[in-house]
Structures are given as structure tokens and as C-alpha cells.
Design goal:
The protein has 13 helices and four strands. The chain is mainly alpha-helical.
């Protein structure tokens, strides 16, 4: 079968199926004639099993161990039931507290007395530490917002407008060992803000669609974060170009390395905390 036929048989998106392949959960054969993947009925059944277990909240890592025979399904289900029981206890506790608060018709944010509902406040904070782990990555939501993209794009456009009157006819767009390897007409300075628009309106939706395979991640958040990150890189390169023209800076690689390192670390830390919350 082709992947299109597998999509029809399983009802799953192609991105999910490709992700399972990437994670080595399924390994379809390749047609030696055309190089296309060919799926068997067994592959289809395995895909259905994987998707079903994912709906139960079982991780990809655990499913991989199941396929390899490193852990039994019975043991996996027992562990998952314990995990779900813990989540249900937390939900029931939150529901009970909300019900208790509703009994007081006069309660408001201004007169809310936390101690009246939670006598041991410090212990209560500790039991809900997962919530505070999520709060600690709030910078991801700020960085991934449309407002941030708007600010970055406006900054890129503003720099282009301010620099335009004093730019030479040719401006550098590529560098090698501190020397210009390629130049373009100065109108290229306006390609930078245009690129921010393309990233936000074209690539961002594509990333969101592809990241849906990672169902345990906040795919929209990651896609927004990446879109704004690339816009930030564009802003950095644009500023570098202007400064390079006037001999103020020379090596763009250092700038790009710092950009990538900082934001990769921030994204990794943020997503680690989001995953730990689960």
C-alpha cells in the first residue's frame, strides 16, 4: 500500500504516520524500482495500535519498548492506570475546592482567603508543583505571541527604512571569513521584513501542521516560537549587514551562533518543563 492508502485505512494524518516511521515504530519496505515506501497490512495494524495507545496517554518511548518486548502490555497498563489515578485525585481535589468556594456566595478575588480553603499552604504548593513548572516557562508564550512577531517585523522594517537613504548601491548579503562573498542591490534591505511575513503566514502554519505528530507537545506554541526565533535571526542579520557596511562588525557567524545557542537552550528548557508537567 501507498501512504495515501494507509491514511485512508487508519484515518490518521500522514504526519503521524511519518513520525512513527521516524521513531522506528514501523519500518515499511521500499520498492526497489521507484524507491517509494510500501506498507503491509501488518504495518497498518501496528499503526492503529500505536495511535490507540497514544490516546491512552502512553508515551512513544514506552510504545517503543513494547514493540521491542522490553516491557509487557500488562505492566504498561498497570503503570498508566496508576498515573491516571494520580491525575484523577488531583482533579477531584480541585473540583472539591471549587465546590467549597462556590458555597460562599460572597467570595471574590479581593476577599479570597486562601488559608480558609488550604490550611497547609506550603504543602499545597508542593503538591501542585507541576503547575508552577508550567508557569515558569511563561516566557515561551510571550516569545511565541503574535505581538512579539509584530514588534520584530516592525523593527526589521524600521531599520530598513532608516538605513535606506545612506546605503550604497550594493549591499552584502553573504559573508565568508569576514569578507563579502555575495552582494545585491540595496533594495534587498526590504527583503528582510518581507521574509518575516513569509515565515509567519506561510511557514508557521506548515510547522504547526507537521508538529501535530508530537501530540504530547504544545505544537502551536513551538511553531510560534520557531517563527519568532527566525524573525529575530533576520533582524540580527539585517543589523549586522548595516553595521558591516560601516566597518563596525565583521564576522556574522559569531552573531548567528549566539542567537541559535541562546534560543535553542531556552526552547529546550521550556519544553523540558512542559513535558515534566505531564
Amino acid at each position: 500500500m501507498t501512504i495515501k492508502e494507509v491514511e485512508e485505512k487508519t484515518g490518521l494524518a500522514r504526519s503521524n504516520i511519518r513520525f512513527y516511521e521516524k521513531e522506528k515504530l514501523i519500518q515499511p519496505t521500499r520498492n526497489v524500482g521507484n524507491g517509494y515506501r510500501e506498507y503491509s497490512e501488518e504495518d497498518v495494524e501496528v499503526i492503529k495500535k500505536i495511535a490507540y495507545l497514544r490516546t491512552l496517554g502512553i508515551s512513544i518511548e514506552t510504545i517503543h519498548r513494547l514493540i521491542l518486548g522490553e516491557i509487557s502490555l500488562q505492566e504498561t497498563l498497570r503503570i498508566q492506570v496508576e498515573k491516571l489515578d494520580g491525575q484523577m485525585v488531583d482533579l477531584e481535589q480541585a473540583k472539591a475546592i471549587c465546590g467549597k468556594m462556590l458555597q460562599d456566595k460572597t467570595v471574590s478575588f479581593d476577599n479570597l482567603d486562601v488559608g480558609a480553603y488550604v490550611p497547609e499552604v506550603k504543602e499545597y504548593w508542593q503538591s501542585n508543583s507541576n503547575i508552577f513548572r508550567l508557569d515558569s516557562v511563561g516566557f515561551l508564550y510571550v516569545w511565541g505571541g503574535s505581538l512579539t512577531w509584530g514588534v520584530l517585523t516592525a523593527a526589521v522594517l524600521l531599520i530598513a527604512l532608516l538605513a535606506w537613504p545612506k546605503l550604497p548601491e550594493k549591499i552584502p548579503i553573504q559573508w565568508s571569513d569576514g569578507e563579502v562573498s555575495r552582494a545585491a542591490n540595496r533594495i534587498f534591505i526590504f527583503v528582510y521584513p518581507l521574509a518575516c511575513g513569509v515565515i509567519h503566514f506561510l511557514f508557521r502554519p506548515l510547522w504547526q501542521s507537521n508538529l501535530r505528530a508530537y501530540v504530547w507537545f504544545h505544537n502551536d506554541l513551538v511553531a510560534d516560537y520557531l517563527a519568532n526565533f527566525f524573525c529575530f535571526v533576520i533582524l540580527s542579520v539585517e543589523i549586522f549587514s548595516v553595521l558591516y557596511i560601516y566597518g563596525i562588525v565583521k564576522y556574522v557567524q559569531i552573531l548567528l551562533f549566539i542567537d541559535c545557542a541562546v534560543f535553542a537552550v531556552l526552547l529546550a528548557l521550556g519544553m523540558y518543563k512542559l513535558v515534566k508537567k505531564r
